[in-house]
Amino acid sequence: TTERLRVTVGFNLAEKVMEALTTKFPEAGFKLVGSERVGPTMGEEILRSAVIALLLSVFGILIYVSLRYEVSFAIGAIVAVLHDVLLTVGIYALVGRELNSTMLAALLTIIGYSINDKIVILDRIREDLKLGVRGSFREIINLALNQTLGRTLITGGSVILATLSLLLLGGPGINDFAFTFLIGVLAGTYSSIYIATAVVLWWHKGQRPQTGSGVTIDMTSATPVRA
Question: How far apart are the C-alpha atoms of 210 and 221, rounded to whole Å?
Fold first, then answer.
C-alpha cells in the first residue's frame, strides 16, 4: 500500500528535507508529490487576489441587483455580504489558520451562496410591493421574511450538514475550505434575515417605496381591494 507523509518545514526547505529523507531512508522510496509555499510574498499575493476578487464581486452584485431590482436592495445585499466575508475572515484568523488559496476559494463560494440567499428574500419583498399588499413597509418586510423563512432555514441547514460532513470526514486538503464555508453559511443565513432587510428598511427611512399596482391586498384575507 502507498502511504502519504505530510511534512511542514521552514520556507524554501522542502528540497533539502526531501534530499535528507531519500538519503537516510532510500528503501522507503520517498517521492515528492507536491508542495505548498506559504511565506510573506505568497501571503501578500493571496491577500491581493482576495481583495481584487472581493471588489469585483461587490461591484458585480451592485450593478446586477440595481438593474434587476433597485439600488436599496443592492446596498442591503452588499452590506450583508460584506458582513459575511469579514466575520468569516475574522473567525478564520482568530483560530490561527493560515491564509491560503483554499480559503480564498471558500470566500468566493460564500459570496455566491450568500447573495443568492438574500436575493430570494428581496425578490419576495418586491413581489409583495408589486401586488400592493396592504400595510407599512416594515409589515411588508416581515411578511416576506415569514414567506421565505422555511426555505432559508431548510437550505441553510442542508448546506451546513453537508459542510460539517466535509469538515469532520474530509481530508486535510479540504479542511480549510469546509471550515471557512461553514462559518460563511452560518453568517449568511443570519445576515439574510436580520441585516439585508434591515438595511433596505433603513434606506427608505421606514417609508413604503412607491411601487406596485393600483390594487392592494389585505394581508389577513388576501382579498384584492381597489386603491
Answer: 23
Instruction: Please compute the mean of the pLDDT values over residues 159-176 and round it to a whole number.
Output: 88
CATH fold group of domain 57-226: Multidrug efflux transporter AcrB transmembrane fold (1.20.1640)
Q: Can you read off the three cell numbers belonging to residue 172? A: 486535510
Whole-angstrom Cα Rg for the chain: 24
Q: Find residue 216's DSSP bridge partners.
A: 225
Residue owning grid cell 509555499:
37
How crowded is residue 80: how many other Cβ atoms within 10 Å of its Cβ? 28
In the chain, domain spans:
57-226
pTM (whole model) above 0.85: no
Question: Residue 195's closest CA among 112, 55, 73?
Answer: 73
Cα–Cα distance list, 132 to 45, 74, 118, 204, 213 (Å): 50, 22, 22, 17, 6
